[in-house]
Amino acid sequence: MILANALCILFFVDEILHSLAGPPSPPGQDPHGWRVPVDCVRANELCAAEPSCSSRYRTLRQCLAGRDRNTMLANKECQAALEVLQESPLYDCRCKRGMKKELQCLQIYWSIHLGLTEGEEFYEASPYEPVTSRLSDIFRLASIFSGMDPATNSKSNHCLDAAKACNLNDNCKRLRSGYISTCSKVSATEHCSRRKCHKALRQFFDRVPSEYTYRLLFCSCKDQACAERRRQTIVPSCSYEDKEKPNCLDLRNTCRTDHLCRSRLADFHTNCQASFQSLTSCPGDNYQACLGSYAGLIGFDMTPNYVDASTTSITISPWCSCKGSGNMEEECEKFLRDFMENPCLRNAIQAFGNGTDVNLSPKNPSPAVTLPPKMEKSPALPDDINDSNTMYDTSVITTCTSVQEHGPKLNKSKEQSLCFSETQLTTDIMPDQKTFVDQKAGGSRHWVGRILPVVPILLLKLAL
Fold it and tell me: Does the global pTM surpass 0.70?
């Protein structure tokens, strides 16, 4: 009898512990019930393993084949399939630029999201995962300006220096030589093979690290020879220019028929669309995201480039115009302004050329050392930044590297204060990213802690 009572008590305690722990999370969800985003290839695999999702996905693909959105939604079966798939991992899935199965991933993404859009939208959401890195990360990785004398550096041809740096890296040198050779070939039937040229350019910008490609694309220039070298980076006579300029909206429509081009254009609009509520005019004040999206467009029908070799202003445009737009001229001009008069893109290019990034001072700084240096407010970047590093000279990055390697010294300089504000940025500027403590989980542990000490007492009483 005593043994039976003891077993009952143990069973009761076990049930309590299991109920407090909660049921296991289903696949694709975290313990809090939020759906965890996965890449679209993986989401497709999860859907294929679930019969109801798999059948609805096949139905939707058949619905989208050769039909516009209104025709598709008029069919109740198609509409039901779309509603079911909005609750599946396919709806939240994203892709990574340059991933092994990028095209397959993007095809899966658009098979869902083309059915959700209201016809041709001016701006489409990016199918790529958000960019979390910043320009300062690239500066640290490449040590682009460290070890150079600022006075000498200001007089040098930065674009020529970028080409020399690329030649010192085997991968960069091989792929750069490859696209220059391909884009410079002239056959008897055509000026060059644009298709092969674009493919070689895509391989270069997708496979070579940004610390090399950015230096070639966004080097700062003080003379026309340097600016012309920068404009010639992508061999524009083959990859960019043509006999006539097509209408920009026609070029956009052509781009959107290709999943890769459509995705890169949507990514550019997502990360470079001018935001006048931010310090830099860029979404999230992230220069790196905008420059990466710009580089991602090179090698497609929408390839952008510098329109001239000016040293006083930066003007970017795809090879198109708004002639012949008819009643769509206003929309065409708006599309073209996103390239030619984009303050986010212009500021991002100038910031990289100057070797600076946004210095966002945290509102409630947490001291990283016993006696932290005084935080200084960063001045807003003006629209027209000259080629010299007026805000931060090149010694700042060298100082930051020294502080990171050897720790802060008692004599704290202004440059070190910039280093501390940057390191504190990762922990203070985004309070939503702090470690999350589940209140319910904490309560569960509290009750478990109170129940467990009682168990031996109950067993002892039963034994007596």
Answer: no
